[in-house]
Automatic annotation (TrEMBL):
PANTHER family: DIGUANYLATE CYCLASE DGCT-RELATED, GGDEF DOMAIN-CONTAINING PROTEIN. SMART domains: GGDEF (SM00267), HAMP (SM00304). NCBIfam families: GGDEF (TIGR00254). The lineage of its organism: Bacteria, Pseudomonadati, Pseudomonadota, Betaproteobacteria, Neisseriales. This is Diguanylate cyclase. The keyword Transmembrane helix applies. Gene3D superfamilies: 3.30.70.270, 6.10.340.10, PAS domain. Keywords: Membrane, Transmembrane, Transmembrane helix. One of its GO terms (cellular component) is membrane. Coiled coil: none annotated. Residues 344-396 form the HAMP domain.
Length: 574
């Protein structure tokens, strides 16, 4: 029972400790994963903004370069159509400047001066071709007036910048630019009379622009970019890009539904994770940033996205998780140990009380209890201690009452002598003993003579005192080992152990009669009483208590009768 309580309490405390450490560990682990994902989202957003910044920077550089070249005096010469060798020299010098620009900027694919006349005929053109610069001249120069970037730039006021949307370059014989994704930055070139004279165009290579950036991105980052309609411009799988060029629409918002608000201009950026949005970003962490493009008056934007596998983000949580498991196991073991120690310490005083109660109920011996404690156990111990004392006190008075009752049941209340019941009990015991060892003994029956007269003459109270005095005299006359009892009324019985002869008994009876017969003063009254005594001997006169007492009674009766009949001495009778 006690050990059951100990086990239950220890189990309860241990379970509480294990649960506490488990829940704490679980929340620490979860919080760590959330923090890692949140940090990864921040990193992805920063990196996506970096990509956009690089793109914008390239656009601005190209615009600056276009403006720089547009201000060259040779440009004005060519645009204003100054003829002759001067014109040719101006073209050659511009071609050299364009080539220098291309060499300086590997991300430039073409630098051209296109005239407004002759359907937008290219006037000076330098292409990038296989890493080298290649001047295209003469009959290889093409008319570009039908391309939007030409007529839209020509429509702009002087000093403005035109920027095309990002797309595949379909211009034929464009060398490195042909078939590659890119954009064009252009500025109009007015003639000296104010009429549109042409434009200066720089073709930018998107692949080249993003190539270095892609290489700098941390391992596992996937780069996506879409135009304002969502068409993928950049995708880890190149087959997914520029779908619109082949009449297909492969849209970012179809692959990443959560990006839809970016294209609706409701959001500027967005971060998702498979931890918090498992439906939208299963097993991944992703960030998308909307970036305005177009240095001129075009209202355009791209959406750049970076995606990282969730596993890679949470990789560093694994060792922490293992450490947390070890800590939880260690704390659980400590919790179990503490639970057992605590439960034992808590139950020890209760066990002491329980043992004390059990031992008290067995032995009634008062036990040492932890009464000095100031807690509930102390209160219980003090109450139990008080209870022990009360029980002991009640038990003591019960034993006293029991002893008194037993005394009263076996003694005569008037004389204090053994009563008839106790006499017969002792007689039976002696009979059993004597039947075994053959030891003889004698029973004497004493009856006062004419006691009725004492009562009648002096009153019952005096009679009582006479009975008490006779009892004392009988006790004084026999040996201490002999038993004197009152049968009732004025009759006494005496049990004498030993081998008595009739003569010895006659002598004893004589002594008894003399002792009884001595004058006594009771309440100022001088009195004398006599007694008739008969006896029986074991085993001669009987072998049962009844027989022996009856025989002694009969003998006494004969004595008394003899006295009444004038016999001189009853002692002749047995
Ligand atoms: N005072 C007193 N008297 C008692 C008590 N018990 C009995 N007696 C009286 O004792 C007397 C005994 O009666 P008996 O033995 O028949 O009369 P007796 O006068 O002794 O006559 P014999 O024995 O024949 O000599 C009766 O009168 C009883 O009332 C007692 O406890 N106290």
């Amino acid at each position: 029972m006690r050990s059951g309580l100990l086990v239950k309490l220890a189990l309860l405390l241990a379970v509480f400790g294990i649960l506490s450490s488990g829940i704490t560990g679980y929340y620490a682990f979860t919080a760590n994963r959330t923090m890692l994902v949140s940090a990864a989202q921040g990193d992805l957003l920063t990196a996506a903004r970096g990509v956009n910044r690089r793109l914008q920077q390239a656009e601005e550089e190209a615009a600056d370069d276009a403006m720089l070249l547009a201000r060259l005096v040779q440009v004005a010469q060519v645009i204003n159509g100054q003829g002759g060798s001067q014109m040719q020299r101006a073209r050659d010098e511009l071609a050299q400047a364009f080539a220098g620009m291309l060499a300086l900027h590997p991300e430039y694919l073409q630098v051209r001066l296109i005239g407004a006349a002759d359907n937008g005929l290219e006037l000076v053109r330098v292409d990038s071709s296989g890493g080298l610069t290649l001047r295209v001249d003469g009959a290889d120069l093409q008319e570009k007036g039908h391309f939007p970037y030409v007529f839209e730039t020509l429509a702009l006021p002087a000093g403005q910048i035109y920027q095309s949307a990002i797309g595949i370059n379909h211009e034929r014989a464009a060398h490195d630019a042909e078939g590659r994704p890119g954009m064009m930055v252009a500025t109009p070139l007015p003639r000296s009379d104010g009429q549109p004279g042409g434009l200066l165009v720089i073709n930018l290579d998107l692949e080249r622009l993003l190539g270095q950036l892609r290489a700098d991105l941390p391992k596992g980052y996937q780069l996506y970019m879409a135009n304002r309609w969502g068409d993928f411009l950049v995708h880890p799988d190149p087959a997914q890009t520029f779908g619109f060029e082949q009449g297909r629409r492969i849209l970012m918002q179809d692959s990443f539904a959560a990006t839809q608000p970016l294209f609706e201009r409701k959001l500027n950026n967005l971060a998702l994770s498979g931890l918090e949005q498992p439906q939208q970003a299963a097993e991944r962490v992703m960030a998308f940033v909307r970036q305005p493009v177009g240095l001129g008056n075009r209202d355009d934007f791209v959406v750049t996205g970076l995606v990282q596998p969730l596993d890679a983000v949470l990789e560093s949580a694994v060792p922490l998780g293992q450490r947390i498991i070890h800590m939880v196991l260690a704390f659980s073991a400590i919790a179990i140990l503490l639970a057992v120690v605590f439960a034992r310490a808590l139950l020890r005083p209760i066990n002491t009380l329980a043992q004390a109660a059990s031992s008290f109920s067995d032995t009634q011996l008062q036990q040492v209890l932890p009464v000095e404690r100031n807690d509930e156990i102390g209160v219980l111990a003090r109450n139990f201690d008080r209870m022990q004392r009360q029980i002991n006190s009640h038990m003591a008075s019960l034993y006293d009452n029991q002893r008194e009752l037993s005394y009263l049941a076996h003694h005569d209340s008037l004389t204090g002598l053994a009563n008839r019941a106790l006499f017969f009990q002792r007689l039976e015991q002696l009979l059993q003993l004597s039947q075994r060892n053959g030891a003889p003994f004698a029973v004497l029956f004493v009856d006062l003579d004419h006691f009725k007269e004492v009562n009648d003459l002096h009153g019952h109270a005096i009679g009582d005192q006479v009975l008490q005095i006779v009892a004392r005299r009988l006790l004084h006359t026999v040996r201490g080992s002999d038993m004197v009892a009152r049968m009732g009324g004025d009759e006494y019985l005496i049990l004498l152990q030993g081998n008595f002869t009739d003569a010895a008994l006659a002598e004893l009876m004589n002594k008894l009669r003399q002792s009884i017969g001595e004058a006594m003063t009771v309440s100022g009254q001088r009195l004398e009483v006599g007694a008739s005594i008969g006896y029986s001997l074991y085993p001669r006169d009987g072998t049962t208590a009844e027989q022996l007492v009856n025989e002694a009674d009969h003998a006494m009766y004969h004595v008394k009768a003899g006295m009444r009949g004038g016999e001189a001495n009853s002692l002749s009778c047995r």
